[in-house]
Input
Amino acid sequence: MKELYTSTDSSRIGLCQSVLESAGIASFVQNESSPWLGNMMSPAVQPTLCLMDDSRYEEAVELLKPYQESSMIESMEWTCTKCAESNPGSFDVCWHCEAEKPENFRALDS
Ligand SMILES: [Zn+2]
Output
């Protein structure tokens, strides 16, 4: 069993799983988000997409490449120019003072 993909976003995990499924590659999700953990999940319990059949690992990695790249961009933190708090890449405004995300980070979204 190999770990393929980890994300705090369980809908993204689900998407990746269905991509593998349509290619006939069996996979399952470990640490699937639990209702009582909500958004407070620590990195240690991030949902992880795992492969049932290790021999198809390279094929699976190829299939998921585009999804992994976009997730890297999303996980890139940006620093608020107004209050200097760091924010997750998926936030468009500062969680602390609601200032807008700086232009140079916005460019990475497209
Ligand atoms: Zn701020």
